[in-house]
Design brief:
heterodimer, A: about 325 residues, mainly alpha, two-stranded antiparallel ribbon, 14 helices, B: about 270 residues, MetI-like fold, about 0% strand, globular, MetI-like (chain A)
């Protein structure tokens, strides 16, 4: 941007990276209220509608909270033991683990593939990138409805295509029949939504890799596969780590896709769906708080583990 | 290899949407024929007519929930972007007590899963008598999107050169004048990115409005269409048309303004 250039040398006045710029405030006497006025609304929202509710939920997990059957009283870990004894919930926990495993793997692989497909310039590249991020921008529940048109037992494209090419002789029920197939098909729908962000994150890392590395490798006679294994993969690790963490958080909290594609059925119900059923249908808020706490802790621990395992500083 | 990859991206991203569009232009008899019609043989607008035209229950609900989603997303986006921009300016350009703590709190709330505060926020709104109001939905959306919006704006503003702002201050501009006359025009692309991303996040919400609105007076389109799907007797053509209606706005935004989305998402996540 030309208009931002200053003709005077400004490097001496620029703040060190990571430090805020010096402003008139520093030179003035007395407390400077302007920054507080600017951040006050943000602070009110974050404290009042995120931090305090989160801490409140944390404590309420150890209370018996039933709106229709008061009183509310401390009950130690009873909510957690009740959850552990709930067979449907344990099943949902396994379902969720499957969603996470499939989702993180598929979205990372597809994300890397899509990023590599649009890595270099070609005619129409910006249109392809626009198409690529389109599924990211759409509501999850509506994507469930859209994909129902693919997986449905009566009108689905998948059934029609399979019979047209002769792989099956009649329409099959895919959703709800076999538990693992149901989970796989539902998770593909979520991957459709989250893989674009993975692709963008990987793409940003890819574009930092110096082209000379590939030229040198090509001169040394490396195959395309070994260039991918030895140059691309190690150097995109930071992008892949961030992509995996976002996929992990989103898959661990999956709700929209199984809710639309499979309803409340145990074959596909997720932990977040159970939180909703327990809290807003059984109106047992205490157990709902406890389950939310379990999901939150699992999310934080797993995110930390992924960062530890995958993230490494890259130097070119 | 490249062509194959590009073909995969296009088919994977667009085929499901093409299929919904295709079905939405077919009659029930055409949809249930086997094999399916891969292109609409005799396109009809009947599904869209049934959803939008006339004074039946269904079109009335669709119209009301479409108005609701526009109002809720619009209000939440405006409030979020204004507050995020002000806070980001303070974070990027001023030193004050508690700055680091507040910035870390922003990051911490970003790491929290969205549904961690579902129950407490519902109970808070219920205590305050705000369930089934636009206010509750907008407040919850703003609290949910403000951290990431602030983070994106903060990263944009930090990247702007300081010199021009200092020159304006030397010329006697107050800090608020520097913000409105110098920083805001320069941060324009960042503000556009933040606005689009916030709006798309809000448009995609389902569970929060499901819990916070009890009837059609505040339910957004996403909630009403999903309820439609839950009723087994609703024909699939109608459902597809409803789906197409709900994705039109975000799809047009994503296809035309994708440059801003890409920049904003990258500013918000890789740091």
């Amino acid at each position: 941007m030309a208009q931002t250039h200053d003709t005077r040398p400004s490097s001496d006045r620029r703040p060190a990276p990571g430090k805020p710029a010096p402003s008139a405030a520093v030179r003035r006497r007395g407390p400077d209220l302007l920054p507080y006025a600017l951040v006050a609304p943000l602070a009110v929202f974050i404290v009042g509608l995120a931090i305090v509710p989160a801490i409140y939920a944390l404590t309420q997990a150890f209370f018996r909270v039933q709106v229709l059957d008061p009183p509310t009283r401390f009950n130690g870990v009873d909510n957690f033991t009740a959850l552990a004894d709930n067979a449907a919930l344990v099943k949902s926990m396994v379902n969720t683990a499957a969603y996470v495993g499939i989702g993180v793997t598929l979205s990372t692989v597809i994300g890397i593939a899509m990023a590599m497909a649009v890595q270099r310039k070609f005619a129409g590249r910006s249109l392809v990138i626009a198409a690529m991020i389109l599924p990211w921008a759409l509501p999850g529940v509506v994507e469930g409805i859209v994909w129902l048109g693919i997986w449905d037992a009566n009108v689905g494209l998948f059934n029609s295509a399979l019979t047209t090419v002769g792989l099956v002789d009649q329409y099959q029920v895919f959703l709800g029949a076999n538990r693992w197939l149901t989970i796989l098909l539902i998770e593909i729908v979520q991957v459709w939504q989250i893989a674009p962000l993975s692709a963008l994150l990987v793409l940003a890392s890819l574009q930092n890799i110096p082209g000379e590395l590939y030229e040198a490798a090509a001169l040394d006679g490396c195959t395309a596969w070994s260039r991918f294994r030895r140059i691309t993969l190690p150097l995109v690790r930071p992008g892949v780590a961030v992509a995996m963490v976002q996929a992990l958080i989103l898959t661990l909290n999956i709700f929209d896709q199984p809710y639309v594609l499979n309803g409340a059925a145990e074959t596909g119900a997720s932990l977040t769906m159970q939180t909703y059923f327990i809290s807003f249908q059984n109106l047992d808020f205490g157990q709902g708080y406890a389950l939310s706490l379990v999901i939150t802790v699992a999310t934080l621990v797993a995110s930390f583990a992924v960062v530890k395992l995958v993230y490494r500083r890259v130097e070119y | 290899m490249r062509r194959l990859g590009v073909a995969f991206v296009l088919v994977w991203s667009l085929l499901p949407l093409y299929w919904a569009l295709n079905i939405s232009f077919q009659t029930n008899a055409q949809i249930t024929s086997r094999p399916a019609h891969y292109v609409p043989s005799d396109p009809t607008l009947n599904n869209y007519r049934a959803l939008l035209v006339g004074d039946g229950d269904l079109p009335a609900q669709i119209r009301q929930s479409a108005a609701n989603i526009v109002i809720e997303c619009g209000l939440a986006t405006v409030v979020t972007v204004v507050l995020a921009t002000l806070a980001a300016y303070a974070f990027a350009r001023m030193r004050f007590r508690g700055r680091t703590l507040l910035l870390y709190s922003v990051l911490a709330t970003m790491a929290l899963p969205a549904y961690a505060t579902l129950i407490p926020l519902y109970r808070l709104m219920s205590e305050a008598g705000l369930v089934n109001t636009y206010t509750a939905i907008v407040l919850v959306y703003v609290s949910g999107f403000l951290p990431v919006a602030t983070w994106i704006m903060h990263n944009y503003m930090e990247a702007l050169p300081v010199a021009i702002e200092e020159a304006a201050q030397v010329d006697g501009a107050s800090r608020m004048q520097v913000l409105t006359r110098v920083v805001l025009p320069l941060a324009g692309p960042g503000i556009v990115s933040t606005t689009i991303i916030t709006f798309l996040f809000a448009w995609g919400q389902f569970l929060f409005p499901l819990v916070l609105s009890s009837d059609i007076s505040t339910q957004p389109l996403t909630v009403v269409i999903t309820a439609l799907q839950g009723r087994r007797e609703v024909p699939y053509g109608l459902l597809s048309a409803a789906g197409v209606l709900a994705v039109t706005v975000p799809a047009v935004i994503a296809m035309t303004l994708n440059r801003y989305i890409v920049n904003g998402l990258l500013a918000g996540s890789v740091k």
